[in-house]
Amino acid sequence: MILMNDVYKTYANGVTALNGISIDIKQGEFVYIVGPSGAGKSTFIKLIYREVKPTKGSILINDINIGDIKEKRIPLLRRDIGVIFQDFKLLPKLTVYENIAFALEVIEESPRKIRTRVMDVLDLVGLKNKARFIPDELSGGEQQRVSIARAIVNNPKIVIADEPTGNLDPDTSWGIMKTFEEINARGTTILMATHSKEIVNTIKKRVIAIEDGLIARDEHRGDYGYEI
Ligand code: ADP
Ligand code: ADP
Fold first, then answer.
1. How sure is the predictor about 24, in pLDDT bands with cuts at 50, 70 and 90?
2. Which of 86, 111, 179, 224 supports an S-S bond with 200, CB 3.0-4.6 Å?
3. What is the C-alpha to C-alpha distance for residues 227 and 80, in angstroms, rounded to an integer?
4. Any idea where the ABC transporter domain is (predicted)?
């Protein structure tokens, strides 16, 4: 479902972040993206939701070459992809409910359907009782749960998370991982960039290591492989 063939990315300032990457990720896989800072992990992830365009090479998501699609078709692509960030990126003036409903309102779902879906995903992440809170009234872990709920409310086929536990304490991080495993168990593909040796070495999944813009390792049930 995600097929990259010899992908390069050179930014406008001349920095080459990816130097010829080829990868095949199937529907339902759970993949960790690891590697040193500056290796190209975020660039790899941003290519998949067309936040950045490849300089060279093809990226097929469900057989569509997303490097070629027109700007106006990007929102359609993103309906199939939920994205989760280290810093949550919630809208501070909206309630938890509104932050999640927003993603459905832009695709013009009926109010009844929106209500059902939002409460379903809030239930899944264990935050039904906080629907009326604003982000500032929640702990970091709870805010990340809201961002996960927002990412999955459209039932995307792929969830991409860029260091989702980077700002969270260990206990909270394990809870977030449990939620990702539940989402993955329903058939959603998960790609997660992480610096957490503990998580990668405990919850064993496919590990793709990126170093200097190249794939250095790609292992089934792999190890984190770095000291920090
Ligand atoms: P990682 O996520 O592994 O830390 P990144 O993909 O963020 O790596 O960065 C890879 C390289 O690309 C780094 O040298 C970084 O400085 C550079 N880079 C990332 N984003 C940009 C950008 N928007 N413009 C220019 N260079 C960038
Ligand atoms: P953490 O242990 O992650 O630091 P906090 O101490 O920030 O968590 O929050 C603990 C609980 O208190 C959370 O359930 C959060 O929703 C609630 N809470 C925190 N700040 C506020 C606030 N300003 N108003 C209402 N509830 C709050």
1. very high
2. 224
3. 35
4. 2-228
């300032």: which residue's tokens?
13
Instruction: Report the complex ipTM.
Output: 0.77
**Check: CATH 3.40.50.2000 for 28-50+76-219?**
no
CB 32 within 8 A of CB 192: yes
Q: Which of 10, 15, 162 to mutate to test the pocket of ligand 1 (most atoms within 8 A of CB)?
A: 15
Pocket test for ligand 1, best of 43, 212, 215 (most atoms within 8 A of CB): 43
| Alpha carbon distance 23, 28 (integer Å) | 15
pTM of the model: 0.89
